[in-house]
Amino acid sequence: MTAVMMFDDRERADVYRWTMSALLVTALHGLVVIGWTLWPEPPQPLGAHLPPAIIELSLVSVSPQETELDLAPGPVMQESDSATTAAKPAAAEEAFAPVLPPMDSDLVLPAAQPKAEKAPVTEKEPVKSEAEKEAPQTRKPVEKKKTHTDRTPAPKTTASRRAEQRAHQAASSRVGAQAMANALPSYRERLAAHLQRYKRYPPELRAAGVRGVARLTFTVNRSGHVLSSRLTGSSGNSSLDAETLAMIRRAQPLPSFPPEITVSSMSFTIPVGFVIR
Fold first, then answer.
1. For bias kind Basic and acidic residues, which ranges apply (predicted)?
2. Tens of each residue's pLDDT in the chain, 277 residues
3. How buried is residue 216: exposed, middle or buried, by Cβ count under 10 Å (0-12/13-18/19+)?
């Protein structure tokens, strides 16, 4: 009986020992897994494993508008105006001419009496004397008067000269405006490529994923110097706005105007986008 009781105590001790060992091993594995999960990763350098930044840049400009010149009326225009004013009263007279009532068909007009024809009167020729018949009739030749006509052209009036000058100026301005419109696209491409080389994306903002689009308006003269620049639209971040203004300062001088662009200065508005793709 005593032996049986001792065997039961040993069996209980073994079961208890194995159970505690299993629990201890399980707890240790759990601690290892939790420690591996919560262990902090080594810090990576700023900007590592980030895609390259792309700044969207486009230029928008308005070509100069063509203005129509108010020309003074020349001689041809004045003649046409006088002809139209002379034709208006004639048309008015025709429009307001009185309409006579139709004649009654039963009314018989008296026949016109023929006028009495007068007998032709014969004039007697004067009788010439013998002395008059014998004297020869001498006639002096009539000298033709020579008329010299000066066909010098009439001098042009001041109004016609001004009209011709204005017409010439208008034609030359239209040709210059067309040449300028043709040269603007290529100049915008040169300007965009030039600004693209001087843009910067702050690395701390790029790492943080800060994005935005700023709108910049600037005025440039013929030699490429920036006369004025300002932000007409914020990107939503003060650092990106400051970088946009710094870009236009770094990029000076800008490309100069081609000969086809004859104006002294031009204004451009560009959206500068800071986007990571």
1. 115-141
2. 555 555 567 777 777 888 888 888 888 877 777 766 666 655 554 444 444 444 444 444 444 433 333 333 333 344 444 444 544 544 444 444 444 444 444 444 444 555 555 555 555 555 555 555 555 555 555 555 555 555 665 565 777 777 777 776 666 666 668 888 999 999 999 999 999 999 999 999 999 999 999 999 999 999 999 999 999 999 999 999 999 999 999 999 999 999 999 999 999 999 999 988 7
3. buried
Name the domain count of the chain. Answer: 1
Domain interval for residue 208: 53-62+173-276
Token pair in block for residue 148: 């010299």
Q: Is residue 32 part of a domain?
A: no
Cα 84 to Cα 78: distance, rounded to the nearest angstrom: 10
- Domain assignment present for residue 254? The answer is yes
Identity of the amino acid at 18: W
DSSP symbol at 235: -
Q: Is residue 224 part of a domain?
A: yes
Angle made by CA atoms 207, 210, 213, in degrees to the nearest 5: 135
18 is a domain residue: no
Pairing of strands 265-276, 53-57: antiparallel
| Residues β-bridged to residue 271 | 215
Provide the H-helix boundaries in 42-129: 75-95
pTM check: above 0.70: no
The rounded distance, in Å, linking the Cα atoms of 183 and 247 is 25
DSSP code for 53: E
Q: What tokens does 266 get?
A: 């031009």
Residue where the block lists tokens 């046409």: 80
**Residue 213 · residue 274 · CB < 8 Å:** yes
